[in-house]
Write a structure and sequence with these properties.
Distance between the termini of chain B: 48 Å
Helix content of chain A: 40-55%
Number of strands of chain A: 10
Number of domains of chain B: 2
Distance between the termini of chain A: 70 Å
Structural class of chain A: alpha/beta
CATH class of the largest domain in chain A: Alpha Beta
CATH superfamily of the largest domain in chain A: Aldolase class I
Oligomer: heterodimer
Strand content of chain B: 5-15%
CATH topology of the largest domain in chain A: TIM Barrel
Number of strands of chain B: 8
Largest sheet of chain A: 6 strands, parallel
Largest sheet of chain B: 5 strands, mixed
Helix content of chain B: 40-55%
Number of domains of chain A: 2
Shape of chain B: elongated
Order of helices and strands of chain A: HEEEHEHEHEHHEHEHHHEHHHHEHHHH
Order of helices and strands of chain B: EHEEHHHEEHEEEHHH
Largest interface: A-B, 59 and 54 residues
Structural class of chain B: alpha/beta
Chain lengths: 445, 267
């Protein structure tokens, strides 16, 4: 089997892993070496599905001793198998890297014999890269659940980022679909890596040249839609991973049916892409916008609104928070306005020091006025001639297509009964006093 | 004395030349309505005033900028000068006049009619140079890395540091076709030089096989069930595809001219 066949098989087997970022660490090559990394990450290409290609994402081997039911590489699946030798992989990486095809290597693996043996193979490939080729580029390695902690420690010294996939967001789902893994076997190494990063950060303060352990932190991934776990559960788990395990990223992957099994969605079911999209939006709100999971969803509302993004949904539920004076409100409040993002909020804070902002100024700062105008005032005034009707607000927050689907789900009965929308047990605004809602959405701001 | 309402400056296209325009503007207490390049076709209604480049004057302006409005502002107008924005020279002049009056806070006057277009232009430049850090594709000819790009802005000065840190031991050349310039590097020195045309030799067997491997990887990594060409296009506009290996640009059938590329690397 030549390297072409191996690359094809082992790329094909690795592609369902979503993480392909090269972010989190700034470094440059030492004299005599090759490679650098930039904290913002650099995308080198985008595949036909629109995902960033930053790293050479392959498996060391797709032979696997485990039989996780959702996975293409499960033992019982009849699929061609291949393995890279450590040297082949290192050579391929360096040659791609020199041509600027990639920012580094993303190395994962099926479980060959046992987790320890597999990890040793990965360590050998990375050692060749780091020591023989003096490679300073980005390396993301996957820790295999159940690996001995001394091996994890060695792997961590060679990589920039490590990740352990949670895959299924609850213990019961794990038991059902991945009988060889347990919550403990996933969370224990995660905790171990976190502790080592913590220790290492104090070492670096003491000794400037102390070797760095996983300097770009760790991340994880969950499969969405293979099990009945709700958005609320997933988002809460995400939040606690950020808080308790100090993860840098949590990735979500809409389940692509790859196996026929009564426990799983059927092969012809479409991946729940919009749900994945909503989760990413919410993830951003947690990390950059100062939202908490409980603000976005709660026990009564366990799923995201399919028609509205989580931020707009929150805004419509909290009209008492608006309208907001853009010239006065603090940064953290500005971030909550639909149509204002991190960049435009920062620019507002800078620009309003030297001038009072008007609506046409906001446009220059990158604010999406179409959405934002219903939620803000400039110098005490709303946009001239703005009519805040519920229909107008919804039009501004949804695309035409989405609005059409929304109206199909919650149709108008007659034009003079427009507000009947709210009388339905709608996903959008249920659970809130009717009068309040009507007042805040229809009264002039 | 020129009439204020139709005053046009003509400068030599260099950064020093532009700084002399600023000197002239203060010296004569006048603000031009346009600043043009020497090769702008003479269809103007009014005669343009020639601004001679004088290094002494330029240096006086240059040293005054960080003192009056900070290093950020100097760095900002240097980058603004690299952009492809229309009327960038005039906006830079207006920006500096604002800066001399208001000091450091000029960098925060984002809604001003002169400052805003400059910030937009610089953002375009920064975005393009960031994207190209990833999208540049090198081919290896006799152990020299060679790449071609066709950017809208003059991005080479912004990419130099990144590639120096990435390949400290390599020799490389990035040819900017739009501006007829090339970034050349050999350990441990780099330069940006004018270069008229670059003809690349036939790729050797090893080069071709790594190109094929990369195309194989690129095609395999896509999840077919999630095919989304629009998403790809918004992240990676088509104008970048021309020089990217994964889209199978057929290599040009041209005679070997490696000596020419090698020449640039040896000072």
């Amino acid at each position: 089997m030549d390297v072409f066949d191996k690359l094809k098989i082992l790329t094909d087997a690795a592609k369902y892993d979503v993480a392909c970022t090269s972010s989190g660490v700034n470094k440059k090559s030492a004299v005599g070496g090759i490679g650098s990394a930039s904290a913002s990450g650099i995308c080198h290409s985008f595949s036909g599905d629109g995902r960033c290609i930053s790293l050479l994402k392959v498996l060391m081997t797709n032979l696997c001793a485990y039989d996780c039911k959702y996975c293409v590489n499960r033992k019982s699946n009849d699929t061609p198998r291949a393995s890279f030798t450590p040297r082949e992989l290192a050579e391929l990486t360096i040659n791609f890297y020199r041509r600027n095809y990639i920012e580094g290597l993303f190395l994962s693996s099926g479980v060959l014999r046992n987790p320890d043996y597999t990890t040793e193979q990965m360590i050998e490939a990375l050692r060749i890269l780091r020591e023989e080729y003096r490679f300073f580029g980005y390396i993301h390695a996957k820790a295999i659940p159940g690996t001995d902690s001394s091996l994890i420690a060695r792997l961590g010294m060679l990589t920039d980022r490590m990740s352990i996939n949670i895959e299924l967001p609850s213990q019961s789902s794990l038991q059902l679909l991945a009988p060889d893994k347990s919550k403990h076997s996933i969370l224990a190494p995660m905790k171990y890596i976190q502790n080592r990063i913590q220790e290492n950060s104090t070492d670096i303060i003491k000794y400037r040249h102390a070797p760095k352990f996983v300097p770009a932190g760790q991340s994880t991934q969950m499969i969405i839609g293979a099990t009945p776990d709700t958005d609320f559960q997933i988002l809460n788990l995400t939040e606690s991973l950020y808080k308790n395990y100090k993860l840098k990223r949590v990735f979500f992957s809409a389940y692509m049916p790859v196996a026929e099994n009564t426990l799983l969605p059927t092969l012809d079911s479409a991946p729940p892409l919009w749900r994945e999209h909503r989760l990413y939006q919410a993830d951003w709100l947690l990390r950059f916008y100062g939202f908490t999971a409980n603000e976005l969803l709660d026990q009564q509302h366990q799923s995201f609104n399919p028609f509205l993004d989580p931020k707009c949904n929150w805004a419509l539920h909290h009209m008492d928070f608006f309208p907001m004076n853009v010239n006065r409100s603090p940064y953290s409040d500005l971030l909550r306005v639909p149509g204002i993002g991190v960049n435009s909020a920062k620019r507002i804070v800078i620009a309003r020091r030297s001038a009072t902002l008007q609506f046409n100024d906001l446009k220059k700062l990158g604010v999406v006025l179409k959405r934002a105008q219903y939620f803000i005032t400039c110098g005490g005034k709303a946009t001239e001639g703005l009519k805040t009707t519920q229909d107008k607000v919804l039009q501004s927050l949804m695309s035409k297509k989405t609005l059409g689907m929304y109206h199909q789900s919650f149709p108008f009965e007659s034009p003079n009964k427009q507000l009947s929308l709210f009388e339905q047990p709608s996903l959008l605004l249920s659970g809130y006093p009717q009068e309040d809602l009507q007042r805040c959405l229809t009264s002039p701001i | 004395m020129f009439d204020q309402s139709n005053l046009i400056y003509r400068y030599d296209g260099s950064f020093d030349g532009l700084l002399c325009c600023i000197f002239e503007s203060y010296d004569k207490k006048e603000i031009p309505t346009e600043i043009i390049l020497p090769d702008t076709s003479q269809t103007l209604l009014f005669a343009a005033k020639e601004i001679r480049t004088d290094v002494k004057k330029a240096n006086r302006v240059l040293t005054s900028i960080p003192k009056k409005m900070g290093n950020d502002a100097l760095n900002f107008i240097q980058r603004a000068f690299l952009t492809c924005a229309a009327k960038k020279e005039l906006y830079i002049l207006l920006f500096l006049r604002l800066g001399y009056r208001h000091g450091r806070s000029v960098m925060g006057m984002l809604t001003d009619d002169a400052v805003h277009p400059l910030f937009k232009a610089v953002k375009h430049l920064d975005n393009e140079s960031h994207l190209l850090k990833g999208f540049v594709r090198f081919s290896i000819f006799s152990n020299v890395l060679v790449a071609e790009i066709e950017p809208k802005n003059c991005v080479l000065p912004l990419m130099a540091q990144h590639f120096r840190e990435r390949y400290p031991e390599e020799r490389f050349l990035i040819y900017d076709k739009t501006h007829g310039m090339a970034l050349v590097y050999q350990p441990y020195q780099s330069a940006i030089i004018p270069i008229e045309d670059l003809e690349l030799p036939e790729p050797d067997e090893q080069e071709q096989s790594y190109r094929a491997l990369w195309r194989l990887f690129y095609d395999t990594i896509e999840i077919q069930g999630r095919h989304n060409p629009n998403c790809r296009m918004s992240h990676m506009p088509k104008r970048y595809w021309k020089y990217m290996t994964e889209f199978g640009t057929p290599h040009k059938e041209t005679p070997l001219k490696l000596e020419d590329t090698a020449k640039f690397l040896i000072p």
